[in-house]
Amino acid sequence: MKLPTAITLTVCAGVIAYFAGQWSQKSVAPGTEPAEAARPASQVRKLPSRAPRDPAAAARALGKYASCSKEFSADNAARLTPEERLELLANGAWAADYGNQEAMLCGLISVLTKDEIQEAANLLGSIQDQGSSQAPAIWQSLWQQWGRLDPEGCLKFFGPDAVSKSTVDARNVMTGWLEMNADAALAWAWKPGKSDLEAAAAALAISRSVNGNLDQLESAILKLPGNEATSRACLEDYFDLATLKGPDRTAATVYDELPPALRPAGWIVAAKRMGYGDSAAAKEWVTRHAHDPGRNYSGLSDLFNSLAYADPAATVRWASQLPYSPEIDRIHPVYHPLIGWRQRDPQAADEWLKSQPADAKWLEQIPPSPRISH
Predict the structure, then answer these.
(1) CA distances from residue 100 to 12, 36, 68, 295 in whole angstroms, order as listed
(2) What is the Cα–Cα distance from 49 to 51, expressed in whole angstroms?
(3) Is residue 161 part of a domain?
(4) Checking phi first, is residue 232 left (phi over 0); if not, alpha (psi -120 to 50) or beta?
(5) Residues with Cβ within 8 Å of residue 353, at least 6 apart in sequence
(6) Residues 234-248: what's their mean pLDDT?
(7) Which residues contact 183 (CB under 8 A, 6 or more apart)?
(8) In whole angstroms, what is the distance from residue 93 CA to residue 10 CA?
(9) Residue 56, burial from CB neighbour count under 10 angstroms (0-12, 13-18, 19+)
(10) Which 3 state secondary structure label does DSSP give 140?
(11) How confident is the model at residue 169, as a pLDDT?
(12) Distances (CA, A) of 124 to 65, 94, 246, 285
C-alpha cells in the first residue's frame, strides 16, 4: 500500500533529523505546522534527541536523505545504540517506496543483535498491519540475520502453523544459519518431526550439502522417512534440479524416473508443477496417474478451478469420474469445480446435480442448493 506523499516526506525528515541532531528550534506560526503534526499518532515514532557523533557524517547524511535514495551502511548502523537502531527501523519502515526502504534498512538489519532481532520483527509486523508493507528484501534481510543469530529461536517464533510466514521465509532463516555454522544446520536438518516450515528450511540445508548432485540428493531423500515433511520438501528441490538438466526435462518425466519409494511423495509435486503450465496436459496427467500411490487431490484446487473457468461442465463431469476413496481423499475432486460452476451458472450446475445417481459418494460433500427441490 502506498502512503501519502506527506508521510513519505515525514519519514525522510525523521531520518534527517536523527543524523543532523537538534537544529535550531524556531517557532512555528499557527497553520504552518509540518506534515509530521498532521500524521496519526499511531504512525509517529519519535527519534532520540542525540547530537550526531560525527558532524561531517551528519552533513553527508542530511544530503543523502534529502532525496531518500542512497544507502545507510551497516558500518553506520553498527555505531548506533540498540535503541537508536530500532527507532531508525521504525521510521524507515514507513517509507512508501520499496527502494527507499531497502536503502535505509537493509544495512541496519544486518547488524541487529540477538537481543534486538525479535523486537525488530514485531515492529515491522506491527507497521505492516497498519497498512505500510515492507519490501521483500527487508524481510529477507531480517530472516537471514535472525538465522545467523538464533535460527532455532526464529523458527520457534514462526510457530508450526504460521499463516503469515512462508516456506521462503523459513529458507531465508536457513540461509543465514548455513553462513554461520553449516555443520550444525545440517545436523538439525536430519532430525525428524518437523513442521512444514521447519521442513522447508531443513530441505535447503540437505540440498545445499550435495552441491547440485542429483544422485546424492536422491540418496539423501531415501534416507528420510517417506511420510516426513522434510522428505516432501526435499523433493521440491529435487524436481528443481532435475528439470534444469535439459530442455526436454519436465515434471512428468522427472516423476516417471523417480525410484518407486519416492513416487508417493512425488505425486503432488509433479501434479502441481504440471498445473502451473498447460492445464490440459495436467488434466491428462492426473487422469493417467489417478490410481498411483500418493494421489493427493487436495493440493490441486488451483488446477481444478483453472479448468473449470474455461469449461465448467466438462471439468465437473471429468472430476466426478476420477477415482475417489474417503480413506485417501479428504475432498472429492469434483468439489471445487462444482462449487465454482454453481457460483457462475447455478441453474446449469443444479440441473447437472439432479441428474447424478443418489448413491454417488461425493454428493454428501456438496452443500444443498435451494434451487433443488427434494
Answers:
(1) 9, 19, 6, 46
(2) 7
(3) no
(4) alpha
(5) 338, 363, 366, 369, 372
(6) 93
(7) none
(8) 12
(9) exposed
(10) helix
(11) 97
(12) 21, 9, 42, 43
**Rounded to an integer, what is the distance from CA 257 to the centroid of its chain?**
30
Kindly state the DSSP code that residue 193 receives in the 8-state scheme: -
Is 72 part of a structural domain of the chain?
Answer: yes
In sequence order, what are the residues at sequence separation of 6 or more whose Cβ sits closer than 8 angstroms to the Cβ of residue 90? Answer: 45, 123, 127
C-alpha distances (whole Å) from 244 to each of 237, 250, 302 are 11, 9, 24
Whether residue 101 is contained in a domain is answered as yes
> Which residue shows C-alpha cell 525523521?
14
The number of beta carbons lying within 10 Å of the beta carbon of residue 219 is: 12
Burial of 9 (0-12, 13-18, 19+ CB in 10 A): middle
Type of residue found at 234: C
Residue 53 has pLDDT above 50, yes or no: no
Alpha helices in the chain (DSSP H): 5-20, 35-38, 55-66, 74-78, 82-92, 98-109, 114-129, 136-149, 151-158, 167-189, 196-209, 214-223, 229-243, 251-257, 263-276, 279-289, 301-310, 312-320, 335-344, 346-354
CA nearest to 44, candidates 101, 90, 99, 102: 90
Q: How many Å separate Cα 109 from the centre of its chain? A: 19
Can you tell me whether residue 358 is helix, strand or coil? Answer: coil
Q: Are 234 and 203 in contact (CB under 8 A)?
A: yes
Distance in angstroms (rounded) separating the CA atoms of residues 3 and 8: 7
| Exposure letters 256-272 (e unless 16+ CB within 10 A, then b) | eebeeebbbbbbbbbbb
d(CA 326, CA 309): 26
Q: Which domain holds residue 86?
A: 1-23+33-142
Q: Give the distance from CA 211 to its chain's centroid.
A: 25
Residues recorded for the chain? 374
Residue with cell 469449461: 311
Task: Tell me the CB-side half-sphere exposure of residue 338, using CA atoms within 13 A.
Answer: 24
Our count of domains for the chain comes to 1
Cell numbers given for 352: 447437472
Residue 170 lies in a domain: no
pLDDT in tens, 284-316: 999 999 999 999 998 898 899 899 989 999 999
The one-letter amino acid code at 222 reads L
In 3D space, the residue among 334, 342, 296, 289 whose CA is nearest the CA of residue 315 turns out to be 334
Q: In this structure, which amino acid lies at residue 200? A: A
Taking the complete model, does pTM exceed 0.85, yes or no?
Answer: no
Q: How far is CA 85 from CA 80, 239, 324, in A?
A: 6, 42, 57
